Amino acid sequence: CITIGLVSAPACITMSVSTDYVYEGKDGNYTEDSPVKPFNNYGWSKLGGETPCMIYDNSLILRICMNNKPFPHPKALDDMYKSLIWDDEAADITLKLLDEKGIINVGGESRSVYDFVSKTHKEDIGRISLSDVSNVKMGTNTTMDCSKLERILND
Fold first, then answer.
1. How far apart are CA 79 and CA 89, in angstroms?
2. pTM for the predicted model, two decimal places
3. In angstroms, what CA-CA distances link 43 with 19, 59, 118, 144?
């Protein structure tokens, strides 16, 4: 958790920057109320960071699906589906949400990692499949329903 402000200050909020990897990673279209069941250690560590924040009424948990810009890899997964946005977009959105409370999914359009990168990246990106990545446990579909985020940003 990140505590913003002084602990004794009335405007203090507790915030956790989390991930879409807290969801099971199979069916996709996860809402903020969907059950959590991380599929790898990274997801478990992020869920562990969310937990202490949940005891405070004024906490904010952002489950962000983002990637570094520019994309740091020569290939992108064409059979893994996510709601990716770039890290600079995630930073801008986070600043707009600091007055909110609860859990908010933060991401973009649901699509394959390859489709996300190839439509927004200037260089040619190769394709890779989840079956080619054996050293990391990955979910096949961690797409998130971000309609709550859209409502907040459009108010």
1. 24
2. 0.92
3. 7, 20, 26, 15
Asked if 130 contacts 80 with a C-beta cutoff of 8 angstroms, the reply is yes
CA 65, CA 86: separation in Å to the nearest integer?
A: 9
pLDDT in tens, 82-123: 999 999 999 999 999 999 999 999 999 999 999 999 988 777
Element (H, E) at 37: none
Q: What is the 3-state secondary structure (H, E, C) of 83-125?
A: CCEEHHHHHHHHHHCCCCCEEEEECCCCEEHHHHHHHHCCCCC
Which pairs with CB-CB distance under 8 Å and at least 24 residues apart come from 150-153?
Answer: 152/96, 152/97, 152/100, 152/104, 153/93, 153/96
Beta strands in the chain, from DSSP E residues, in sequence order: 2-4, 13-19, 59-64, 66-67, 75-77, 81-82, 85-86, 102-106, 111-112, 126-128
Q: CA–CA separation, 27 vs 33, rounded Å?
A: 14
Q: What is the model's pLDDT at position 11?
A: 63
